[in-house]
C-alpha cells in the first residue's frame, strides 16, 4: 500500500495594502524577500516559495533592493521563487472583463521575463469567483484553478445532491463555465492557512498533525493532501524543513514533501477519481447563510468604483481604439505608454483595494493612481485623435469653416445628443498683450455671425447653438516651443442617431448668410408634466416618481425613480440595516420641477426633492464598533435628529432615443446610511440577468433555504435586467456595481451610496473617509424591450455605449487618405459585446475581442473576417470551427490586419 503524500507549500498571501497603508505592507515585504533569499542559501532542502500568484511582488521588492536583482533572477530560474501567472490578485467582479484579461496578459509577459510561471489560476481570497473563469483560464493557457470561496465542501459521506450546484463532495472538483469549458480545480476547504506555523516540538506537532491530517482527509479525493504553509502577510517559516522531518518521524505511513503547486497538481491530476464532482458558473457562496458573501463591497466607497470605471473606459474604449485607428499596424502604436497606464490601474484592482475595504490611507493613494492612469490614457487619446484627424479628408469644406470630426469608439452603434465645442477664432500672445487679445476675442464674441453646421457634401445638419466663451489656451507642438493664446469658442448641440461602431463623420461649423430656421418641436409639455417621443411617454408625478408608458410593447410601468434611504450599522464589507428599520422614501416629499432643455433635439428636466434623514446612527453603534461586536449581533438604531438631504435628478429624453438617462446629485452630510434608487417592475419572474465578466449571468431572485441575511446584494458591471415572456426592463449604470432584486414587485434597487465608519473583518479599524461626506453624482439609465432576443440585447448594448460618449476633435481643411465619413471596420450584431479594439502586442495586426451576450448561437457580420484568425488572451493562435459563428457564452478574440 502506497503512502499518502502530504504536499507542504510555503507561501504568504500578500495583500499589497489593506489594514495598513501600502508602504507599511511594502516594508514588511522587503523583510520577507530578504529572509527568503537568505534562506535559499542556507537550506538546500527548502523546495520553493509560492509568491501568491502575482508578479508585482518582485517589482515591489526591487524598488527597494535593486542590488539583489541577480539573486532574484537566479532563484526564479531555479524554481525557488514561484511566480505568476497574474500581475496582481484582482477582484473578479468589480473590474471589467478587459481588466481581468490584461491582468492575465501582463502577468504572463512579466512571468516570461522572470522565468516559468505557475500554471495555476490562483484565487485564494477573491470575494466570489466569476462564472467564466474556466473559459478565461483556458484562453490564458492555464490548466488548473485554486480558490478559497464560493463552494461548500460536504466531505463525511462524500455525497452531494444533484440540486446542490455549489457543493462538492471533495476539495477537488471540475469547474464548468457557461460555455461548457471545464478546469480541474482545488478548493482550499480548510483555507489557505491549513499548514501554517508547523510545530517542531514533537508533542505540539502530534496535536497539530492529528487535527490537520484529519481535516484534509475529510475532503481530499486522492491520497495527495495539500498543506498551505502561510497566511496573510505571513513571514516565511524558516524551520519548516526541520518541522517536516519531525512530522515524518511521527507519521511513517505518510510522506511529507516540501513542494510546489506544479508538482502537487501533477500528482492530483494523475489520481483523480471517476466520481469527481462538478460545480457550475459563478461561485459566490450561494449556499451559505448569506452574511459573508462580501458582495456589499460593491457599494463601499462608491467613488472608487466610479473612478475605476472612468479609467477603464478611457483606456479600453477611447485611447486604445483611437490609437488602433490612427496607427493601424505601425510601430507608432504607444504600447509602452498604455502598458504603463494599465499597470497603474491594475494596482488599484486587488480585492482589498477596489472593494473599498481597507483603511483610509490606502484609498487616498488609490485616487492618485487613478488620476495618473487616466492622464496617460487622455494623453494617448489626444495624440491619436489628432493623428487620425490628419488622415481624414476635409478638403471639401469651404474656406473659413471650422471642420471637426466625430468618432464613435464603441463596438456598437451609438445614438447620442452630442455637445461639441469648436474654436472659432484665436489671438496669439505673440501678436499682442494677453489683456488686449482677451478684449479682442470678447469683441469678436459680441459680433458672432449666424452659423450653420454642414457635412462634407455641404448638406446642412440640424443643430442647436448652446453658448460661446472666451478663455486662455495653448498648443504644445512636438517640434517647437509652446504657443499661448486667447480663443473664442462656440458650443453646439447635434443629434447623432445610430452612428456605426468604430466610425467617424466629418462636419464643419461655418458662418451663414441667413439665420437658420428653428425647429419648434418640443419633447416636454410643462402643462401636463409629460416627457414624450416616438418610443416613450413619461409622466412626472408630484412626488417625483415617474409613470412610464413604453410604446414599443404597450406596457405601463408606474412608480419609477424612487429614492430610498436606510440606516447602515455594518462595515465596508457588509451592509447591516439599523435595528429600528427606519426607512425614508423620496415619495414622502414633493418634487420641484425645472426645465433645463426643451427643443427639437430632446428635453432635460430637473427634479429636486428634499428628504429628512437621520444624521447618523445612535451612540450605541460606536460602542459596538469599539467592542468588535459582530454585525449580525448589533442593535444600534438611527439617530432621532433629522437633517435635510436634497436630491437633484436630471432626466434626459433625446429625440431619437428609446431610453431615459438620469444624473442624480446630492451633498451627503449624513453618516451610517445607504441611498438606493428603485425601479418597480411588477414583472412575474424567478430570475434576473446581470452584466458580469464576459457573461450575461442568470441569477435567481429568491435565496436558498440556508440564507439568513435579510438582503441579497449582487454584483453588476453595466446593467441588470428583469423580463417575462412579453419583455422586460434594463437598468444601466456608470460605476454603480451593486443591485438587489426586492421580492415585492421584483423591484430593481441600485445602490448609489453606502456610508460606514469602519473597515470590519478581524478587528476595529476606523474609516471616517468611508462615510463618504461631500458632493456626489451618479449616472444611470432605464430602457424597455420586447420579447425578442434582439430587442433585449439592444438594451444591453445601449447600457454599455452609454458609458462612452462620441469623441470629437477639431481639425483644419486638408487632403487625407481616409474618407470624410467611414468606419475602421464594420461590425453588425447585437449579440457580440466588444471589450477591446487594440493593436496586437507584437504590432503585427490588430486585436478585436468580445463575447456572446446570450446563451444562444450568434452570427458575426464583419469585414475583418476575411483577414482574421482567432487567438487566445495571450494572442497565440487559437483556431475555432467557424469565424462567423459565436457559440453560446463564448469569448472570442480576433487578430486581423487590412
From TrEMBL:
<dbReference type="GO" id="GO:0046872">
    <property type="term" value="F:metal ion binding"/>
</dbReference>
<dbReference type="InterPro" id="IPR015341">
    <property type="entry name" value="Glyco_hydro_38_cen"/>
</dbReference>
<dbReference type="GO" id="GO:0030246">
    <property type="term" value="F:carbohydrate binding"/>
</dbReference>
<dbReference type="InterPro" id="IPR011682">
    <property type="entry name" value="Glyco_hydro_38_C"/>
</dbReference>
<dbReference type="InterPro" id="IPR000602">
    <property type="entry name" value="Glyco_hydro_38_N"/>
</dbReference>
<dbReference type="InterPro" id="IPR011013">
    <property type="entry name" value="Gal_mutarotase_sf_dom"/>
</dbReference>
<dbReference type="InterPro" id="IPR041509">
    <property type="entry name" value="GH38_beta-1"/>
</dbReference>
<dbReference type="Pfam" id="PF09261">
    <property type="entry name" value="Alpha-mann_mid"/>
</dbReference>
<dbReference type="Pfam" id="PF18438">
    <property type="entry name" value="Glyco_hydro_38"/>
</dbReference>
<dbReference type="InterPro" id="IPR041147">
    <property type="entry name" value="GH38_C"/>
</dbReference>
<dbReference type="Pfam" id="PF17677">
    <property type="entry name" value="Glyco_hydro38C2"/>
</dbReference>
<keyword id="KW-0479">Metal-binding</keyword>
<comment type="similarity">
    <text>Belongs to the glycosyl hydrolase 38 family.</text>
</comment>
<dbReference type="GO" id="GO:0004559">
    <property type="term" value="F:alpha-mannosidase activity"/>
</dbReference>
<feature type="domain" description="Glycoside hydrolase family 38 central">
    <location>
        <begin position="297"/>
        <end position="370"/>
    </location>
</feature>
<dbReference type="InterPro" id="IPR037094">
    <property type="entry name" value="Glyco_hydro_38_cen_sf"/>
</dbReference>
<keyword id="KW-0326">Glycosidase</keyword>
<dbReference type="InterPro" id="IPR011330">
    <property type="entry name" value="Glyco_hydro/deAcase_b/a-brl"/>
</dbReference>
<dbReference type="InterPro" id="IPR028995">
    <property type="entry name" value="Glyco_hydro_57/38_cen_sf"/>
</dbReference>
<protein>
    <submittedName>
        <fullName>Alpha-mannosidase</fullName>
        <ecNumber>3.2.1.24</ecNumber>
    </submittedName>
</protein>
<dbReference type="Pfam" id="PF07748">
    <property type="entry name" value="Glyco_hydro_38C"/>
</dbReference>
<dbReference type="InterPro" id="IPR027291">
    <property type="entry name" value="Glyco_hydro_38_N_sf"/>
</dbReference>
<keyword id="KW-0378">Hydrolase</keyword>
<dbReference type="GO" id="GO:0009313">
    <property type="term" value="P:oligosaccharide catabolic process"/>
</dbReference>
<dbReference type="GO" id="GO:0006013">
    <property type="term" value="P:mannose metabolic process"/>
</dbReference>
<dbReference type="Pfam" id="PF01074">
    <property type="entry name" value="Glyco_hydro_38N"/>
</dbReference>
